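task queued by scheduler; priority normal; single chain, no ligands, no partner chains; default sampling; output format set to structure tokens
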Amino acid sequence: MSNKKTENISASGENEPINLSGGVSKKTSKPAHNPKLKKESKQPKIQDIHTENKSQKGLYLRVKPNKYYRFISNILGIVVVGFIILLAINSVNVYLKSIEAKNAITYSASQGYSKLLEGSKSTTKVQFTDALQAFENALENFEDAETILWFIANDDTIYARESSLASSAKAILNSGKYFAKAGEYFTEALEELNQIPLYIVSKNEEGLPHQTDIDVTDFLKKGIEKATLALVETRAASVELEKINEDLLPPDLKGRFVYAKEKISQIIKTLESIEEHFPAILKLLGEKHIHRYLILFQNNAEARPTGGFIGSYAIVDMNDGFIENIRVEDVYHLDDQYTEIIEAPSYMDKYSPNILFRNSNYSPDFFYSGNKAAWMLQKEGGPSVDTVIAVNQSLLKDFLEITGPIQVGDLPNKIDSENYNAILTYVIEGKIWGAEDPKHILKVLVPEFQKALMKKENVSKIMSVIYKAVQQKMIMAYSRDSIIQSLLDTLGVSGRVPLLGEKDDYLNVIHVAMGGTKTEPFIISRIQHHTIIDEDGEIIDEVTVTREHTFSREAQNAWNDIWDSFGFDHKQTPGYIIDMLGRGTNHVNTRIIVPEGSQLIEVEGVKESDVEVGYDEDLDKTYFLTEMRVPPQNEVSITLRYKLPFTLDFDPLDTYKLTIQKQPGSKGGVFTKTIEIQESPGSDNIVSYAYYPEDAYLASEDFISYATNLVYDRYFSAVFGAKE
């Protein structure tokens, strides 16, 4: 084992590519190979006016196409901007070039969509009064434009009914009015809905009585009513869009217009989803019946498939947004009294052959782990619960940065974001507050923490931490109620492992700490995923997992200073506590989960006999199981090569798709993805037409490289085909 320098990759969540080009400082752009898959359709000629299959004789206007192309281009360009603006309200960031108005009609419409933009920006900043005024101004501008076009709006002649130009112009203005009105309603809905966290905190703020005058569910209902009205207006706008003749659009606008219509359809689905999941939100708040939560406190310094070891848990009762009860318990109080043997999956054999409450989070898919945790709690004598939430201990740092230092019991100093891990571990593992209840400090900490956190001024910061934690799978949830579970799936908080398509690649590397060590904070992880595709479309994956243990004397000295400041003589600290916290060897059970049917070819860094090949029935995936041991100041790598169970068809095109999921609760690491096309000597028939993410590095037609952090789940795809 050798010491190696590790490249410092930011784990901030920013998706910055790493240059893997081998010394090339600039990304060189290669002309895109654009296969002609479809012939462009010709612009249809303007025909005579017809109605009910009979030609209408008489005078009709013949116009110059270029003039009306400019007219439609201006207004339709603004319409497209309007669609994208509404998406901004839903936190979808899309940029579209604005088009300058050429006359009074398009000027008024442009002002209307400018107001939509102004309104949506205010909405994203939660400036509801400004947003509402902007949407009202937008509506006035569209009404002004309609007044200018009175001769179209009020014309019932054959020309007005049959001319695509006239009906399209009318539809543009109508859609603008509907969008403006939808913006008003949606802004009012957000104003109501964004107050809910504030009211929940108000009802639970320390020192205040149970505020029965604040009915959280009433505010929720008002918000949903406004969202429903926004849905009605958006649907009406969508109907108007269908009246616009795309054939009249210039080529540079046609594609964007089609794209915009697809996006407005997504807006409708989002608003429909709000309606659909409204009952679930009421249940979670405990509107009609008390909703009982099981909160799993997972110590992700000791890695587990859903984050960390379940050392403690809390039972929380929610009644109409008010927390009526919180009870914190040590998981061992139940486990130590339970004698029934429940056989665990074979991949758990080396660290826990039997399922207990504390190791019920054995699946990386929280649907299964949450369900098993609720079941084991009840089976071991605990209460029945409705919803399970897993929270990883490292989040305490973020919340303590919000609350500031907290006094816990008679400790001489306060617990803060920098010392909490060293102190909690020392007190619990050293049984400082008693061997019978070593985690008593948590029972004292939680109420004080709740008092410090549940304050009105903390609401926005709390929501920001929770939002980020959900994205990074530091918080996951499961519910026995199918309606609530559907909501959790929609919100992306359920921690699901996806079902794969017929030609989908997949990777999920799961580490489980062995021997009770809590050294994960000192581990830097790197994963390299190399894919080789041959000319017949067969695929070989090569995965290299590297773990580096960074514990040092400096880290131990920092702990010594913290312990001494709390009156604990660091010289008296038992050696096993220091080993457990970081000085010991990081020993993990490593499970590499891949598509079902993958065939192991060879391994490096570990004996082939030490790699178990298995099938996870819950996930419907194959896995390779082994162990990794990394002493401090060392790094260890293992490499596995395996064949995927599917092939690509390059006639004419096929897509390689990879989903790489991060281990819940992990801090992430560097993930590198490369794809190599291998053909027979002299052959050059396969080419890459496109790839995602767009900032991947195309070293050549035969090699693609991409690197990022694994703070979030990542997705990669590339389109390959035969050269023309």
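post-processing summary
- The longest helix spans residues 251-285.
- DSSP finds 18 helices and 21 strands in the chain.
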